[in-house]
Amino acid sequence: MRDDKTSAQARDKVRERYFESIDPEVFDQIWEQARAFAPVQMQIERADVERVVDFVNLFASESKLDPGIIENSYYVAP
């Protein structure tokens, strides 16, 4: 999303797949605004996933998330 070389291509693919009903010019404006807030590096650490599992399970009455899903479900940049 933040890569100037591939952003337009990614935008078009996302619009085609998920937001086809939105006018292309309007979606372009939305995309450009979202780019400013997108993280430079997509990194999800173990603690982030643990917090999500704990939060979901706090409110789930029947279908709680198995904490075992935490392992190998995060990415830490080298």
Structure description:
This protein is an all-alpha fold and 78 residues long. It folds into 2 domains: 1-39, no CATH class; 41-78, no CATH class. The protein is built from 3 helices and no strands. It has helices spanning 7-18, 24-35, 46-59. The radius of gyration is 17 Å and the shape is elongated.
H/E topology pattern: HHH
The number of domains is 2
Q: Write down the Rg.
A: 17 Å
| Main sheet characteristics | none
Q: Which descriptor suits the 3D outline?
A: elongated
Strand content of the residues, in percent? under 5%
Number of helices: 3
Q: How many beta strands in the DSSP annotation? A: 0
CA-to-CA gap between the ends? 20 Å
Helix content: 40-55%
What is the compact description of this entry?
Helices cover 49% and strands 0% of the residues. The protein has 78 residues and is mostly helical.
What's the layout of helices and strands?
Elements: H1 7-18, H2 24-35, H3 46-59
Characteristic terms for this protein:
3 helices; 78 residues; mainly alpha; 49% helix
